[in-house]
Records
---
Amino acid sequence: MSTLSRIPINPQLRQGRRMLTNAQVMHAAVLSCFPPDISTDTARVLWRIDQGENAFTLYITGPEAPDLRVIVEQAGWSTRPGQTTDYRPFLDRITAGQEWRFRLSANPVKSIPGAAGSRGRVVPHVTRAHQAEWLTQRSGKHGFEILRHPEENAEAMIAVTRTEDLRFERAGATRPVSIRRAQFDGGLRVTDAELLRRALQQGIGRSRAYGCGLLTLAPFTQ
């Protein structure tokens, strides 16, 4: 089983503000919604915060249904307890050739080789153009290609609509964790349904425990 959940987050609550501003706090809260012995062989726990006008929505995917009360009671509204749906029927309907709107929160990085005998470095892409190129170059191995606008010689249908730099303390780490998170919105065409299903359940890129990697699809008619 694979599930997709959504929870409105209340920024007026103290814990709601903490979850929205500290990826480590949100990571711990999301994991607490699942039993500790869950299997992540086919689907792992992923999460993403979508921000609208005066609204924050937490999306979670996982290998089984979560107990959303853990987050709702601390950071949501009792009148809007969150929703969980079985993700499998949607995943099974994905076929090559389909076109979808997509949203992805990811950590676009590049590796810089070190000198001979030394370890290289992983650094974030800084510009939105390089961040978009990062996803475009990786799309094929995740079962999709980025669409282009219908006009002749049009640009790719991809935009980096939000970026943020996360910095937080992690237990056992000798220094703070720093992550650059980018939100991608655009259109895609399915090239390999199985690879795309895997990406939807396993995530894309690094830092997937901290709000990166969750890809979602929606029809163009919405």
Note: The first helix runs from residue 14 to 21.
---
Amino acid sequence: MNLPARHRSGGMWERGFPWSEPIAAEFGDLFDRMNRFLETAAFPASLCEAAAWAPPADLHETDEAYRVECELPGIGREDIDVEVGEHEVSISGELRECEGQGVLRRRGRPTGKFEYRALLPVEVRSEEVTASLTDGVLTVTIPKARAAKPRHIEIQG
């Protein structure tokens, strides 16, 4: 004989979490502090310093070139290095920590070394690459190498 199943209504998932907003924020701070602790405890300082963050970027392709738009707010031209090889573009540098007053309670912006890399499927003309930094967005234009355009060949009979 089967017994009817009991369903509880108004469980935690249906009612939402019973925590108020300040307690939820404290949990977020606690998780951030635990992550920082675990990162420093698990890895030597030399390895942590070598780790780099990747800035948000878009890679566009046209018939003539590739264009990388990379968000780097607050970083000066002198702190950015752009390198282009036959099939790769690399944007790297360092965002230094701002000197602020008071005690930093929560960090929401990355600091330290950054690096963005992208593979390019065709050869490019690295000597014709241009880069500009406007309103915190770095735009790198990478012209493609001139490839032979396909053409129709008439077969002789």
Note: The radius of gyration is 26 Å.
